[in-house]
Amino acid sequence: MARAESVFALSNGHVGLRANLDEGEPHGLPGTYLNGVFELRPLPYGEGGYGYPESSQSVINVTNGKIIRLLVDDEPFDLRYGELRSHRRSLDFRDGLLRREAEWTSPAGRTVKVRSTRLVSLTQRAVAAVEYEVEAVDGPVRIVLQSELVANEQLPGGAGGDPRAAAVLEAPLIAEAHHALNSKAVLVHRTRFSGIRVAAGMDHIIEGPEGFESTVESHEDQGRVSVTTVLRPGERLKVVKFIAYGWSATRSLPAVRDQVEAALTAARYTGWDGLVAEQSSYLKDFWDSSDIEIDGDVELQQAVRFAIFHVLQAGARSEERAIPAKGLTGPGYDGHSFWDTETFVLPVLTYCLPGAVNQALRWRHTTLPLARERAGQLGLAGAVFPWRTIRGEECSGYWPAGTAAFHIGADIASAVVRYVRATGDVAFEKEYGLELLVETARMWRSLGHHDAEGQFRIEGVTGPDEYSAVADNNVFTNLMAQSNLRNAAEAATRHQPEAAALGVDTEEMAAWRDAAGAMFIPYDEKLGVHPQADGFTDHQFWDFEGTPPEKYPLLLHFPYFDLYRKQVVKQADLVLAMQLRGDAFTDEQKARNFAYYERLTVRDSSLSACTQAVIAAEVGQLDLAYDYTAEAAMMDLHDLGGNTRDGLHMASLAGACIALVAGFGGLRDHNGTLAFRPRLPSGLRRLTFSMQIRKCLLEVRITHAGTTYTLRRGEALPLTHEGEDLVVRAGTPVTRPIVKPPAQERCGQPPGREPARRQPHAGVAGGGKVGSAPDHLAAE
Amino acid sequence: MARAESVFALSNGHVGLRANLDEGEPHGLPGTYLNGVFELRPLPYGEGGYGYPESSQSVINVTNGKIIRLLVDDEPFDLRYGELRSHRRSLDFRDGLLRREAEWTSPAGRTVKVRSTRLVSLTQRAVAAVEYEVEAVDGPVRIVLQSELVANEQLPGGAGGDPRAAAVLEAPLIAEAHHALNSKAVLVHRTRFSGIRVAAGMDHIIEGPEGFESTVESHEDQGRVSVTTVLRPGERLKVVKFIAYGWSATRSLPAVRDQVEAALTAARYTGWDGLVAEQSSYLKDFWDSSDIEIDGDVELQQAVRFAIFHVLQAGARSEERAIPAKGLTGPGYDGHSFWDTETFVLPVLTYCLPGAVNQALRWRHTTLPLARERAGQLGLAGAVFPWRTIRGEECSGYWPAGTAAFHIGADIASAVVRYVRATGDVAFEKEYGLELLVETARMWRSLGHHDAEGQFRIEGVTGPDEYSAVADNNVFTNLMAQSNLRNAAEAATRHQPEAAALGVDTEEMAAWRDAAGAMFIPYDEKLGVHPQADGFTDHQFWDFEGTPPEKYPLLLHFPYFDLYRKQVVKQADLVLAMQLRGDAFTDEQKARNFAYYERLTVRDSSLSACTQAVIAAEVGQLDLAYDYTAEAAMMDLHDLGGNTRDGLHMASLAGACIALVAGFGGLRDHNGTLAFRPRLPSGLRRLTFSMQIRKCLLEVRITHAGTTYTLRRGEALPLTHEGEDLVVRAGTPVTRPIVKPPAQERCGQPPGREPARRQPHAGVAGGGKVGSAPDHLAAE
């Protein structure tokens, strides 16, 4: 049940509603989340230390506006009692509506049909709405509908000792005001420690047989509109419920309350049909430029659209707030944002919803004062961004896997550079991007040092792989820092007055370039592979043969000390470096490194399969790439991590898109030019995707015969295909043949950790356009 | 005040009393400690992990039996009020008595003299006693004495954020029983979570002018004997108070209570004079074989005797319980024992009180079931001893500086081997020592692994230096593990039936020998020094010039991440390896290594100066060795760490003895033979010390002219002097000249961290025998 609540969750990046049933119970995990609304909780330490964060931030379940309870002749409509004759929910990615149909016979023998449709508006960011209809099948039957706002809902407790599960915060909201009038109620609360004021409101349009009655009331933690009537067979009672939220840490009670009232007024004015039409129109535009089409595997096709839809929901309206690792679909990871956002989610949004990337990076920019303060505390120059946070403060309670993961700075810088290159948004670069690049470059320059031979080293840091920590010269980190330093120098050269205003002079720029040029990248000559970090390839191999399946994920069954000191990899690290800094490796090195790390990588993280797919495709292991692509795409639909209940894995969903576009499409954007090396696994017949780049919309259509580049918008776009420079012009598609990579023996993985071999679900022929395939998801 | 309470603390290793004033207040930190009495407290984690200990153990302040309050004409005797005409406390190392004399005029103008003498018996381990006398100077004056037992004393709060300060536990004792009769009272309590029953009792002998009256009463948390009389000028009221403690986690209430009653009965039978005589006799024997005499520096002479006395107090009667880092002198480090015991305290006790070493190692042996369980949890064979503990469970809440410090196992093994070689105690070796060696060797064999070249590596561990953590091939650890493996194989060869009973076969012994033979010891060829661990010498240097004095100790002002990744050393690590495994280094390497690490070592730990003294002496920097020796010896007398208030630094006190004997005496005991290379700094004229070794008592007398070896007990003892084999025989002292080491330039230390240059306090000529020097310590 909790898994379905995550899978069917609706969000616009501002407001998120888990797919809890309208009637509230039974539930897996009730959840209504507002981006940026959190509570502080103390971070305890058995043994404290200088610079340890004193408190963390946890997303909270705010006032629930989804609830519409139904009484049938005074018996509550509850799936656990009576007889459920049919029940179906579906989420349509074309219109963004979550539909539900049920036919239920009460314990007393009365049968009703219930239909509800729910949306979280992509066009009116504070608004959600529900159309709820009950119809009497036999009758006459007395119906009571109670549409509610409920604050401080009781939550199921207990995280079972899994450090990844969110802390459950009980009753975090303190009532400040409530009122009710006609069909409307508003509750205002405030969080106890973080001091965030939250207002929730609802208004209703009720249609039913002559003579229905409605009442309204409000209390501190509850608002309720009750509607009652008697329905004869075939008669219906329909309620449209508009829900709105407003919140602020600074604005006054009347201001926040009025903001909610205004949103309700606008929503009511737009009406249910209007909201539905806006939603459809928004999504039509989105899908037109962002769909990824697959021929040959309908299940994968559905999964990829599921992924794109949820990435959109997470980022569409986050607007100067963070995009959390779980979006607004669940309380997992305490609602924190990590490097996932910049490394997995933003690369996808950059080419389909660039405005969202602009907003997400501007959020990072707003946190610069906190990041500078943190750098100062750590004895570094520039800015140190938090490993995990909601508002911007470091919230990690374990520094070897938090503070030490300095690569977050380079990940942000990389996202800035990608966005600016893809959009040509010079205004953004001048006002926000440059400062992010400069402050992260300053951090790297002060974190590293030159050794006696003049090599620039970065020591005591943690790379992406969480089964290693605090090592010297992590290749991923050093390569990403190298780009960061170079890109900062280049941006400062482009925008000299703005750079000067940030205190950058030519000496500082030279120091960045020199450090980048002298960056030390360890290499194991004996094995002919790059160690993930200094000494890694000398370490003992993990005893994979002696590790039974039930001992995964390893972090729940083995101590960090043992994981850290052995050759075992949780998630792509060196392999991710080969994707994001592919220009720093030869093809031979890529093949050897990939084979070496494949047999060490256990994929206990959802941030791995997609990257392995990309490099598997590059080194020519297309079937393996296909398997990993499917794994990334199915992470939540098949609950592969066993924790979809806590929310969806946004980075893995975005990663499924990356696996297709960067893996089979072979897209790389290292140097400001789009470079493609397309290739298809035997299981797929066609892959088509589109990309927004500057003023153009490029469509790439890959079949086993060849690749066709078509400009659907714009005049001309330069790109490379297999290293050949091309310019694609409006009206003149360019087709090039597929270059088959040399056949390679399939790499081995740790025993029991091989990805499932993909059996294409091609029973239904063709994938095709949005609309022709089974786009809905059905459950229960 | 709190510092003086630590410095004048009395203990026998079983019961410890801080030198709180008889009248209870004012106090710095009230403290009565019983070895092994602790309370459990949860260990919280911001982010938990597999294998993290769930609770810690904290020493608690038990029922205070020291209190004797005095009322003078109904005004309480309190140093803060009235006029203190004189006040003097002294601790005599010859008889182990803490004496106090005060003359005080009450606010109302009455003057009294107070004399008290306190002891914690070295011969009756459960017993302490006080002789308390008040004399009227003017008068007549009405006197009330209240002799008390007080449980759950209020403690001053707040550790000020220093992670090293002990957690303060409030009211840890739950009352179980109390009774009072005649001059005697007994209270029985139980700790809430650890379930330890603690009984405290007192009995009294009262002498005073005809007609004094006494009453007795008891309550849950208090026992009180009140004595009242009127004293005319010159008249005295004297109370002898016998105090006894008993405790157990398993024995019944009557059993523990009766144990205390029995101890009181025995003490009363022995009487005050008897207890004093026993104490003197015990200490006469001890000093006769254990004194270290110095000519030329009376302050250092006093400090060294202070050190020896407190090491004796910590270890004398610990008897199958741990010797904590602070002894029983304060709550610092939560009362935990660390590797300090085996590495610093036991080497001293081995040659002066070997029975205490036997007991301390048997305590470790009793914890083997816990250590085996911990090894299993960590995926290792054999036994993993806790980094910090009271009862035997791991109590470290920060694994990189706790669990990862595996060298504790080798430190214990090394102490076993030293004890067996020094005493020839084969019975101990068979019954206890062998198993400790075997289980630690098994741990090392499973912790390390062979690389492709066949070298045996130990990765991801933490050495002694706490400003580095979780590194590969820490030289200290690898060398100590090498000895551990070899010594286990040798002991198993000597005791084959016993080894077989532990499951050791010839294959396992061979595996230990092979691993020891193949042990990898990193060496930096370019610099010609040993890196503390792999990669250490490549790291950035700490910015010592940019670190002002108020930023020390560094751990309170800089994050671990920054300390760990730079070349900065908290305490001797590689330098300690050169002491304990001096056989693994050439003289040239020692000199180069010492110079290299000197400029990196900030001595933020009290476990450093003594080791630096030893190696400074070995490489010929005798004045520097002298400075470090004085620093180690003065650690608590001059409160160099600023935390003597929390208890004395036993390891530094023991270290002062090591600095003299292993530094200037040049003693090494690597291979079963005592080897000496004596040398004296110019500031000292003579150094004489004695050592018990097997059945012999060896005296070593070093002057600038030469060294004389005299056998004061036993028939013949082989040893080496500057590499020359000698046999010293009864009645035939052997004298050899001093070999002056080649003059060396004094090494540099980090700016501001140089040891104070020793200005010899030789104003009073001669040091000489116990008794001729000012052995008492006076304060206030």
From TrEMBL, chains A, B:
Domain Glycoside hydrolase family 65 central catalytic residue range list: 305-656
Catalytic residues identified in the record: 466
Keyword S-adenosyl-L-methionine assigned: no
Residues in coiled coil: none
Region feature Disordered, mapped onto this chain: 736-780
The keyword Ribonucleoprotein is annotated on this UniProt entry: no
Gene3D superfamilies: 1.50.10.10, Glycoside hydrolase, family 65, N-terminal domain, Maltose phosphorylase, domain 3
Residue span(s) of domain Glycoside hydrolase family 65 C-terminal: 667-728
GO BP field: carbohydrate metabolic process
Keywords: Glycosidase, Hydrolase
UniProt cross-references to InterPro entries, sorted A to Z: 6-hairpin_glycosidase_sf (IPR008928), 6hp_glycosidase-like_sf (IPR012341), Gal_mutarotase_sf_dom (IPR011013), GH65_N (IPR037018), Glyco_hydro_65_C (IPR005194), Glyco_hydro_65_M (IPR005195), Glyco_hydro_65_N (IPR005196), Malt_Pase/Glycosyl_Hdrlase (IPR017045)
Molecular function GO labels: carbohydrate binding; glycosyltransferase activity; hydrolase activity, hydrolyzing O-glycosyl compounds
Top-level taxon of origin: Bacteria
Annotated ranges, domain Glycoside hydrolase family 65 N-terminal: 3-248
Binding residue positions for substrate: 339-340, 570-571
PANTHER family for this protein: GLYCOSYL HYDROLASE-RELATED, GLYCOSYL TRANSFERASE
Family: Belongs to the glycosyl hydrolase 65 family.
Name assigned to this protein: Glycosyl hydrolase
